[in-house]
């Protein structure tokens, strides 16, 4: 089959035609994307200035529909913009009312947003103040933390604040022992980190909590091994028997944080054997047990695990 031959002039004309077509499409796209559109967005309510002295319960869903004026560009990137998925609502009106008019806050809300909100549905939020009982309970940090070797946790994560105030019916509030944070994964840590995290939502709408976010601080240190000879003590020698053990010390290898390395010594660990193993269980040797270990340290190995003994009356 003979191929169609295109002359140099025809190729130039074809290139010009394709270029004009692409420019026309580009100009049409620019015109479409620069236009302003009215479209709805679902947003989750975030309460600010929550009344602290009284309990309340929202009588509607925690989501509202926003009618937003946006350009085509803003519509295209709206899924990547978390700003338009939440709506901060000031609850200061609840000091004198049992409802909040969102229309009164619309001007203030729009000052902090790139997309102008024209209306909110529902425009009024209602609250039930029938429950007035409150209680402070500890916050429990629900987490999964891992570290790059040789790093590890220097101490338990610090929570600021450590307690949450819960409002609701007395029978439900009294049943609470703690309040969980949202699940959190912090992986491959090698340095100190601080971040904020939301407290778990009340799915059954029995409680209101304050605050709804806390700060978490995790201190990280590099760990290394340290070898120590630890004297072995004798426990439950009630009859003042003259007891001799062999060996008298155990060689312990412990993991210690570098910042604490020089402070970890023989006084940081306590080992003992229990004479009840001989008196009651008739053992012929005694097990060496760790009875105390300094904070931030972890036992790697201990030799020996058992000792021989002799008792002189």
CATH topology term of the largest domain: RNA Polymerase Alpha Subunit, Chain A, domain 2
Structural class: alpha+beta
Order of helices and strands: HEEEHEEHEEEEEEEHEEEEEEEEEHEEEE
The CATH architecture of the largest domain can be named as Beta Complex
Q: Percent of residues in beta strands?
A: over 45%
Protein model, in words:
With 313 residues, the chain is an alpha+beta fold. It folds into three domains: 93 residues, RNA Polymerase Alpha Subunit, Chain A, domain 2, CATH 2.170.120; 86 residues, YbbR-like domain (RNA Polymerase Alpha Subunit, Chain A, domain 2, Beta Complex), CATH 2.170.120; 90 residues, RNA Polymerase Alpha Subunit, Chain A, domain 2 (Beta Complex). 16% of the residues lie in helices and 47% in strands. The protein is built from five helices and 25 strands. The chain is elongated and about 110 Å long.
């Amino acid at each position: 089959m003979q191929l169609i031959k295109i002359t140099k002039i025809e190729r130039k004309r074809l290139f010009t035609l394709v270029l004009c077509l692409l420019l026309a499409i580009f100009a049409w796209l620019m015109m479409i994307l620069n236009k302003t559109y009215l479209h709805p967005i679902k947003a989750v309510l975030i309460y600010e200035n929550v009344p602290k002295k009284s309990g309340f319960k929202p009588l509607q869903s925690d989501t509202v529909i926003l009618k937003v004026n946006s350009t085509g560009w803003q519509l295209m990137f709206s899924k990547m913009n978390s700003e338009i998925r939440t709506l901060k609502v000031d609850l200061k009106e609840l000091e004198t009312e049992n409802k909040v008019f969102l229309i009164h806050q619309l001007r203030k809300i729009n000052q902090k947003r790139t997309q102008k909100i024209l209306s909110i549905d529902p425009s009024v939020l209602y609250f039930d103040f029938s429950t007035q009982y409150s209680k402070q309970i500890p916050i429990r940090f629900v987490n999964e933390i891992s570290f790059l070797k040789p790093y590890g946790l220097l101490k338990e994560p610090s929570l600021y604040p450590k307690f949450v105030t819960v409002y609701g019916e007395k029978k439900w509030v009294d049943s609470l022992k703690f309040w969980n944070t949202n699940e959190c994964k912090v992986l491959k840590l090698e340095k100190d980190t601080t971040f904020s995290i939301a407290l778990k939502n009340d799915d059954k709408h029995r409680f209101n909590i304050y605050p709804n976010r806390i700060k978490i601080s995790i201190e990280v240190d590099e760990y290394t091994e340290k070898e120590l000879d630890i004297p072995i003590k004798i426990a439950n020698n009630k009859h003042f028997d003259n007891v001799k053990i062999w060996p008298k010390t155990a060689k312990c290898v412990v993991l210690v944080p570098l910042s604490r390395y020089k402070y970890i010594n023989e006084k940081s660990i306590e080992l003992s054997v229990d004479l009840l193993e001989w008196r009651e269980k008739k053992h012929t040797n005694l097990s060496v047990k760790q009875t105390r270990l300094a904070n931030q340290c972890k036992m790697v190995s201990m030799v020996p695990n058992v000792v021989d003994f002799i008792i002189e009356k």
